[in-house]
Design goal:
eight-stranded parallel beta barrel, two-stranded antiparallel sheet, TIM Barrel
């Protein structure tokens, strides 16, 4: 797969409103693309809406959804999907992804809950993903998520993810931090997990920080710096698959903007290392 198969390239950063005042031309030179949650920007006008329009006209943007609840028990919110479709087109958004989880029933639950790892859930979720792609008239990616319990588990996490991707015929947003978090919490080998992912479906990568609650319990927070073992796992990901567009997520406890950019530059450094070694982007294992 060449770089042309990816919706963006290089190293990106999740855009949050507290960052807007720091976005000068010089400050953003190392950011190749930006990601936003569309729910936070659909229908926004005034100063924020104007600034967002300026940015989407200037930089490549992708969207990562928060509220679609792809595995939830309630019907898909198709009214929201039609609003989303207009938003993606209006701002020339290059790609859309969602979490492989659910977050609502009769109302929003304000957390990402695990879908049972069962054959029945594979069919249910895949059908809903296909419907989303039909409405949006484009492929989407689903993200492997962190989880802290596996109710009704019949399949291993990796087998569940791969079955959904295959049956839905959708793409993967690979979250390296979530693999690390789950490997600690559920005691599996993160490197072996990586080896069983379908290289041809990976469209981009997330990397983030987390909170260490105990030696054997990590909470995915996106509120701290990325730690060395996660950087090492990203390095191993590039070794396994080649250079893939990678985005840094930070949702709160924002450091000075220069410190965020330092982490973006770390992504660039790892990408340069493996691009120099492989001479390309994606290597099929």
């Amino acid at each position: 797969m060449s770089s042309q198969s990816f919706p963006v390239h290089g190293a990106g950063l999740g855009l949050r409103r507290p960052m807007l005042s720091s976005l000068t031309g010089q400050a953003t030179q190392c950011v190749d693309f930006w990601e936003v949650a569309p729910e936070n920007w659909i229908g926004v006008g005034g100063r924020y809406g104007h600034r967002f329009r300026e940015l989407t006209e200037q930089f490549p943007f992708i969207c990562h959804g928060l509220s679609l609840s792809i595995g939830g028990p309630s019907p898909l919110d198709e009214a929201f999907l039609h609003k989303l479709k207009r938003f993606l087109k209006d701002h020339h958004i290059r790609y859309y992804s969602e979490h492989l989880s659910y977050c609502s029933d009769d109302g929003h639950l304000y957390d990402l809950l695990p879908i049972p790892f069962t054959e029945e859930a594979v069919h249910y979720v895949a059908d809903r993903i296909r419907r989303v792609q039909e409405i949006l008239e484009q492929r989407i990616a689903v993200e492997n998520v962190s989880y802290y319990a596996a109710p009704g588990k019949q399949l291993e996490e990796i087998d569940f993810i791969n079955a959904v991707l295959l049956e839905a015929d959708c793409d993967l947003l690979l979250d390296v931090n979530n693999i690390y978090v789950n490997s600690i919490n559920h005691r599996y080998d993160a490197g072996i997990f990586l080896q069983h992912l379908p290289a041809e479906r990976i469209r981009y990568i997330h990397v983030a920080g987390h909170y260490q609650e105990a030696v054997d319990l990590i909470v995915d927070t996106h509120g701290t710096d990325v730690i060395d073992p996660v950087w090492q796992l990203l390095d191993k990901t590039y070794q396994q698959f080649g250079v893939i567009p990678t985005l840094l997520e930070r949702d709160f406890n924002f450091p000075p903007f220069a410190e965020l950019l330092h982490e973006v530059k770390t992504i660039h450094s790892l990408q340069t290392k493996w691009r120099d070694e492989t001479g390309g982007y994606l290597q099929h294992a």
